[in-house]
Each structure stands twice: as C-alpha cells, then as structure tokens.
DNA sequence: GTGTGTGAACTTGTTCACAGCG
DNA sequence: CGCTGTGAACAAGTTCACACAC
C-alpha cells in the first residue's frame, strides 16, 4: 500500500541535529490555532499578559498541557507573570508557517465551494483564494470576490503561474478522486477534502478530511450513549454513598 | 472560568458494571464512519465479503487497527474468510446509534448554513433537518427543501415539539455563543460549531468544532515544515544567536 | 491455508508535581 | 510568592505477532 514508506518504524538516524524547529507533536499543532484565536480575542479586549491557567480554561484544556505545548515553540513565558499575548501570537504564527501567504485553490463551486470562497476563514489569515475551478460552463467566467471561475483544464497553466500550495475539494463525491489527482499532478501538496469520499493520494501529499457526515455520526454515537446511560440510571443502580447534591 | 465542573478529574464511581455496549474508545468511534462509507461503496460495487486487510488499505490505516476496532463491537468476522459487508454495516450503524432518526436544527442560514441544509450529508443517513433558524427578517419564512426558516425566539416552542437532538451553528462568530446558549437551554445536547469561535457550554453538552481556519492553519504548518526540510537539505544551516530579522 | 481476535510491546499524548526564575 | 518549564508517572492509542477457528 504505502509505496514510499517514509519512516515505517525503525528510525535509524541517531538524531537529526535538531530539525528547523524542534519536533512539534501533531496533537500540539492541532491546538495551536485554538490558542491563537483565544489570544487574539484577549488582545482585542485589552489583555496583554496571559497565564497558562487562563488560556487553558478558555481553550477547555489542562494548564500543564498549555505550558508543554508552548514550551515546544521556545521559552516565551515570564516566570511569575505569564505570556505576552502579542508576542506569543507572533511566535505561534511563525511556528505554524503563517508568516507567509499561502495561495489556495478551490475546486467545485457549488453551494459549499461558494460559501467557502467568500468565507472569513481564508481572508482573516494569510490564505489567499488564488483560483477557483468548476467544469460547469454556466459557472465558468463568474467572479467571486474578484477571482474568476475557470475550467479544470486550465489548472496546469494556472498552477505554474500562482504556485498553488493548498487545494480545497468541494466537488460532488464521484469526481473528487479525479480532481484530487489533477491537483496533485499540478504540484499541490496539501488537500482539504470536503467531499464525502475517501481519497487516495501519494504519500508525500497531506490530506485532511472535513466531513459533515462523519461529524454527525460521531455526535450520534455520543447522543445514543447518553440515552443508554439515562436508561441505565433509571432502572436498578442503587446509589449508597450518594452525594445527592 | 468553568462554572459547573462536570468531572474535573477524579472520577469516583468504581466501574459502572459494563455500560450498554462495551466501552468504545474515542479514536475508534472516529474511524467507524470511515469504515462505514467504504463498506457501502464496496457493497455497491458487488463485494459481499471483506477482509480487514482490504478495509485497512482503503481507509489508509493498519489492518490490526481495523480488526481491533471491529472486535470492540463484537465478534462479527469469520476466521479465514473476513467480514460480511452488509452485516457489518448494520452492526456499525447500531453501535453508532444510527438506527434511530436524529432531528437536527441549523442556526444561521447564511452561505454555509444554506449549503449544509441542502447537503447530502444529512439526507444520506438518519439525520433529519427538522428546523432552521435565522434572525434576518428577509430570510424568515423562506423554505429550504421544505423546511421553513424561523426566528430564534420560536426555538423553545419548536424544540419541545420536535425533540431536537443536534444543533449546527453556522452563524457569524459574534453571535455564536448566544445561539449556543439558546440551543442548550432548549435541550439540545450536541452542538456542531462551524463559527470561528471557541464556545462555552455546560459539561454534559457535546461540542465539536468544524473549523476551516483551524484546518488551514494545520495545513500551513505541514506545508511550512516541508519547505523547511527542503531548505535544510539545501543549506548547511548555521545557527548562531542573532535572530536579526 | 487464510484471516480473525487478542494479549503484550511499544509509541504517543496527558497529567502531575515541583524545582527554579523573576 | 506566582507562574513557567520540564522530568517522571500515567493513560490512551497503535502495532506486532501468533494462537486458533473456519
């Protein structure tokens, strides 16, 4: 399956002399944008210094986790005081690679693609919607926030010109794989897939799913779980030492 | 910060005598919908029996993981043969609570809310878009796929009537918290938040984020990482003290 | 033989608890 | 004294490897 196994298991290199940044675990990377958002809100409301405790409670995580996460980026806090919000934002931005502009291409300009093209999510940070693709002749040529919708066949030319970094797939499921192939062939190395389809891409392409149906199913599980528990509570369960409360 | 700590840390109950189903780890729950989708595609293409190996390669995970995940639901495979696809789908559905209909309310009928309301994600499985909310008078009364858009003030009445289980928040960020409170007060116990805002909800409410901006930032990190690696290979990397910049 | 189901080893992620700096 | 930064303990999740059912 994996054609080019990147590091299947046995790591042989003793220690790669400290990579560009210290190795940041995946779980931490996923939390950094959350801290980022909270810090910005705090800054907007006049707070300049923030403790791990405060950040943690806002992000609904443990304070030790916040400190560990942040310490992976470097020693940016002041003992006894906390972190300088503005400075921390800058450091997180740098660690996440948000100190550059990333050109994004959206493929599939239906309801969702259109909504995303106009969304604040791109505009707010350093993401520029650089290209829009659709194969429907009645849509091609339309402009959304100043960017023209083009036919996928034009992608190779467009990609060369714009050095597209991130592709967003909002096509119907049946064509999602074809579109993914096209994007990958044009040099796009990160794909965000909104189509309800499991895609295959080469090992060096980062592929993430944003899938409404999967999210809903996970919620369904928890909801059902809860129902099960309630049922269990109503019937036997004798609660002796009960902290009735 | 956290007003009603639900289970801050120390769990006191010793072990609730085996819950409804055997305890299914969170990571497994997140993968079940993926297996589900693959199984359905296989079934559609005529396959009736499937091995953990095949499922794994389609889902891009390890075969042992598939087997462990599935064995948590029960012993549904046949040694030497594999799993019966149709039967397995049924079992996963049951485990995920998809053998009931879940009424869903969507709050915020902008570009995204509208796109979701029409989306296949809901229709395909047992989720019924039961209510749509928006406070814009020019939208209220509009029908989307047969469901009328109503004012949030009507929510209490609507909720009582429909026993809404899952709320989807697609409002602008500034009102997201208010809408969340409203939904929670009306008895909705699972929220899917698309607004770029960290929300506070009582401990017994399940809250998940689907956040374009966070997804993009994670992609940015990996993209930057990749760039860094390339550069690291090219240059000798002399790392003295001065961070001139 | 073939492929499941599962203990046991291992890896990753989380939390604790405290030394030490400001 | 307050709060960061981090080693060490712990928990969750993954992978291996193999007994065993078909």
Plain-language structure description:
Two copies of one chain form a homodimer. With 245 residues, chain A is of the alpha/beta class. The first copy, chain A, folds into two domains: 26-95, Arc Repressor Mutant, subunit A, CATH 1.10.10.10; 102-212, Rossmann fold. Chain A is built from nine helices and ten strands. Chain A has helices spanning 26-44, 52-59, 63-71, 85-96, 111-117, 120-124, 155-162, 173-185, 212-234; strands at residues 49-50, 77-78, 82-84, 102-107, 127-133, 143-144, 147-150, 166-169, 190-193, 206-209. Chain A has a seven-stranded mixed beta sheet with strand order 6-7-5-4-8-9-10, with helices on both faces. A three-stranded antiparallel beta sheet of chain A has the order 1-3-2. In chain A, a hairpin with a 2-residue loop joins β6 (143-144) and β7. In chain A, α1 (26-44) packs antiparallel against α4 and α2 packs across α3. The longest helix of chain A has 23 residues, at 212-234. The first copy, chain A, is globular and about 60 Å long. Mean pLDDT of chain A is 86; it is low at 1-20 and 235-245.
